Amino acid sequence: QKEVEQNSGPLSVPEGAIASLNCTYSDRGSQSFFWYRQYSGKSPELIMSIYSNGDKEDGRFTAQLNKASQYVSLLIRDSQPSDSATYLCAVNKGSQGNLIFGKGTKLSVKP
Amino acid sequence: DAGITQSPRHKVTETGTPVTLRCHQTENHRYMYWYRQDPGHGLRLIHYSYGVKDTDKGEVSDGYSVSRSKTEDFLLTLESATSSQTSVYFCAISPGRTYQETQYFGPGTRLLVL
C-alpha cells in the first residue's frame, strides 16, 4: 500500500459547485495533515492544515480528518475557475516534520 | 514564497557534469529540504537538514549530496548529472519546532540533463 494515496483525476466540476478531494494514508502514527495547491509551473502553496478528527473550515475550504479510517479530505465550496490546479495531500512521517506527499489530484473548474 | 529563493531557476547541463543548486532563506528556519517532482511520482524527498552541518537522507538520495554551512543556505549537488535527474527541484523550509509545523516551498529549479 502506498503511504499517501490520492485519485489523480482530473476531477471536473462546474463553477459554483462543491469540489471534493480525497486522500488516504497508511501510517496510523501520523499526526499532521496538510493540503497544498499547485498551479501548473508553480511551487506548492499551503492552503489547509488539520491535526484533530473532525472538520476545519477556512473560507471556502473545509478539511475533514478521520484518523480511524485514515482518511483526510478537502472540500472547496463555490468552486471558481481560479481553483483549477493540482491539490497535494501531505502527511507527516514519524516524530520529525518530514512529510510524505500524495501524487496529487488535478481539479478543473469549468465556467 | 516565504523568504525562500532558489538559484538557478533554470539550468541545462550535459550528462556527467557536476551541478549545484542553491536554496537561500531569510526566515532563520531550522529545517530545510530538497525535493524533486516528476510526472507520475509526485514530490519526493532527496535530503533534508535539521541544522548547520546536520543533514540526512530522504527517499531518493542516490546520486545527490548536500551541504549546509550556514543557517540560510542549503546546497544540493549532483556530482555527475544523469538524464534521470532531469526534474523540477524544490527547496522547502520549516521552523520544525513541533509536528504541526508545515513546510513552505521555494519557486523551484528546472533542470534538464542532456
Report the total helices of chain A.
0
Estimated helix fraction of chain A = under 10%
Percent helix of chain B, as a range, is under 10%
Order of SSEs of chain B: EEEEEEEEEEE
Oligomer: heterodimer
Count of helical segments of chain B? 0
Instruction: Tell me the Rg of chain A in angstroms.
Output: 13 Å
Bulk shape of chain B = globular
The description of the largest β-sheet of chain B is:
7 strands, mixed
Beta-strand residue fraction of chain B: over 45%
What is the terminal-to-terminal distance of chain A? 37 Å
Helix-and-strand structural type of chain A:
mainly beta
Q: Uncertain spans of chain B, ≥5 residues at pLDDT below 50?
A: none
Unreliable stretches of chain A, pLDDT < 50, 5 or more residues?
Answer: none
The portion of residues forming beta strands of chain A comes to over 45%
Structural class of chain B: mainly beta
What is Rg of chain B?
A: 13 Å
The overall average pLDDT of chain B, rounded, is 94
Compressed to H and E, one letter per element, the order of chain A equals: EEEEEEEEEEE
- DSSP strand tally of chain A: 11
Q: Please give the most extensive interface between any two protein chains, plus how many residues each contributes.
A: A-B, 23 and 25 residues
What is the strand and helix layout of this fold?
The complex is a heterodimer of chains A (111) and B (114).
Chain A lengths: L3 E2 L5 E4 L4 E7 L7 E6 L6 E6 L3 E5 L2 E6 L4 E6 L8 E8 L6 E3 L3 E6 L1
Parallel strand pairs in A: 2-11
Antiparallel strand pairs in A: 1-3, 3-8, 4-5, 4-9, 6-7, 7-8, 9-10, 9-11
Chain B lengths: L3 E4 L2 E4 L5 E7 L5 E8 L3 E10 L2 E4 L6 E7 L2 E6 L8 E8 L9 E2 L3 E5 L1
Parallel strand pairs in B: 2-11
Antiparallel strand pairs in B: 1-3, 3-8, 4-5, 4-9, 5-6, 7-8, 9-10, 9-11
